[in-house]
Amino acid sequence: MKMTCNIFRFDPDSGATARYDTYVLDSEPTETVLDALIKIHRHLDPTLSFRFACGVVKCGECAIRVNGSPCLACKKIIEPEMKIDPLPNLPLIKDLAIDRRKAFDQVLKLLPGPTGLAEIRERWQSVDPGTADRHVQLTRCYECLMCQSACPVRADLPERFVGPLGLLWLAQASLDPGNEAAVRQCAESAWDMCAKCAICSDVCPCSEKILDLALDTLKKETKNENH
To answer: Which of 169, 197, 194 lies closest to 183, judged by CA?
Structure first.
């Protein structure tokens, strides 16, 4: 089948304005968007920048938007005509490639310091099995950043709100028996800022519904703190 890809192109260091380049190629109906991007890069335009790693739906590196909807390129089946963009509201390196390290750092700077988070995963031998199971569920995140990109509160308040990924990390932190007061305080503030709109959960590719679980965990923790 013939496929037309209109792909967002922008290099912040070039001084040029953003544009869309159009590529037409032959593809099989079962191919993924990642297959198409690799084919374009190898045979049509080696300057196209995008991210991917293993292609087994765990790394989250290949998250993009196709025809306005966020997706993992390695799982999204191609369509006859596609408009392909990077995830919005996130730092851009070039074309479709998001600066993941910078995006994570933006969240971490709003969270408590090392004593609140860095040591959290070292103390899980002492928790009860139910809490440990919930923590395991909360760590199944792909870290694809689609939730961060789609969050309307994060888009409006990037310097104040940790976003869905930050809420998830805080939910993990809140289950730690050695948790510090600063973590609880940050979790309560983030919970209050969250719009509870469920957009993050709708775009999350994880079948575990971990963002719903994270919000439920924080809701219980903030109620416990207030009583």
So the answer is: 169
